[in-house]
Amino acid sequence: MFEPTGWVFLGALVVGFGGLLFWLVKTRHLALRMTAGVLAFALSTLFGAALVNDNYQYYTTWNALAADLTSHGTVSYTAAMATSNKTLTHLDRRENAGDLPAAPSVPPSPTPNPTPTTTTLVDIPLLGIPAKPTTGSGRVVRLDLPGKRSGIDRRAFVYLPPQYFQPAYANTQFPVLELLHGDPGDASGWIYGLGLAQILDHQIDSGRIGPMVVVMPTTFSGAHGQDCVDAPHGPLDDTYLTLDVADDMAADFRVLPPGPHWGIGGLSDGGFCAANLALRHLGSYGAVASMDGFYSTQADLAVLGKVFSQDGAGLRANDPTALAQSASGPLPRFWIMRGTRNNTDTVAAGYFEHVISAREKTMNVVVEGGTHTPPAWRAALPSLLAWTWNTLSGGPVGCGQADIPLGVGGKHPAAPPSSPSRKA
Q1: What is the pLDDT of residues 339-365, one digit of tens each?
Q2: What is the edge-to-edge ordering of all strands in the sheet holding 259-267?
Q3: In the chain, how many domains are there?
């Protein structure tokens, strides 16, 4: 109960704040009054932060908070990682594996969408990498990804599956999933806020999905971003995320080139980014996954209108709905998630699904009782990963609608232990 979102912790802050106020009023010593005032202000600030965290359920354990602050469970990149085939020693990162949901190999499709009038899907060849049970844990690598084309250099995290270090896969190039965080937010949220590495380990080790590399780049510099677009007189975020990240991944790791075996996904603003970038760069991605995203420039005109100075051409060129309607080439597959307790996300997802379904069937995931917060995203992540693997590997692609209870996967997984140091 004394966790960051527990009522005992919040109550202790309230009691402490009340006690300090009482001290401030009763004491006559100036130094003590100043001390009480400073401590009361500090506790009130901490209480405000705790309320925000309680609402969004970002850190639900002290371990998760400590791991984020110390970068626990990640290792710095070394060149040896790109070519190493040394088998990892087993790390029991799956302390809460029993609490993690089991996503089906092929997501269910009990309620198919109407048959599209024109089906133009990108062709995804069968990938000769099996999904079968294995042992060991993946490794989370932190590194800088410099952008030669964009001039941007930002921090990223990369998840390497257990097979990446196994001799049998020494010459294997792996499919890639690129995941984009929201705004506000940063790339570490996938690791510490959502427990992505633990979920991936559990799904891969159990054979529910095969091995894939997951890259989590930082999408913007500063306090807020610009929805991953190339600004006419500013940062070239689109160029960085679509071209530079792919170039850096190819240079540093054994991965397949952009195309049908690359996926892109995101949450909130990152969901818009994923849909927009995939539709702007047709052929670069075989799969797109959006958790609580929006799909029109009008939905974030306060940001995009400023980036493009209300220029209609720039706004239309970065509008996923308009791009989906006007695209002449094959579209990537789409996985779209929303929670039932957020009407804005539900309406946005429903309309975009309607637009896409005129071209192809989509996979629609509904989190019952979900809001625009991490618990809903944690619940949906196993489905996202299973669907993405099936799509990128050229296997059966789920479509229709899957309903997921909020409690499934909503519990914060244990913080991952430190990965072993890598010696060349």
Answers
A1: 999 999 999 999 999 999 988 989 999
A2: 74-76, 139-146, 153-160, 213-217, 176-180, 259-267, 285-291, 333-339, 363-368, 400-405
A3: 2
Q: What is the pLDDT of residue 22?
A: 74
Q: Give yes or no for a contact between 290 and 274, defined as CB atoms under 8 angstroms apart.
A: yes
DSSP three-state, residue 145:
strand
User: In whole numbers, what is the pLDDT of the chain averaged over residues?
Assistant: 81
Cα-trace Rg, the chain:
22
* Cα–Cα dist 397/385, whole Å: 12
Name the phi and psi angles at 75, rounded to 5: -130, 155
Mean pLDDT, residues 43-71 taken together? 56
Beta bridge pairs of residue 75: 141
Q: Phi and psi dihedrals of 108, rounded to 5?
A: -65, 155
Predicted confidence band at 24 (pLDDT cuts at 50, 70, 90)?
low
Note whether 326 and 393 are same-domain residues: yes
CATH of the domain at 144: 3.40.50.1820
Within 281-397, where are the H helices? 301-307, 312-316, 320-326, 343-357, 374-392
8 Å CB contact between 164 and 250: no
Which pairing describes strands 153-160 and 213-217: parallel, antiparallel, or unpaired?
Answer: antiparallel
Residue 180's alpha-carbon distances to 127, 238, 271, in angstroms, are 24, 12, 7
Give the other-Cβ count within 10 Å of 212's Cβ. Answer: 30
Q: Does residue 243 sit in the same domain as residue 344?
A: yes
Q: Which domain holds residue 34?
A: 7-56
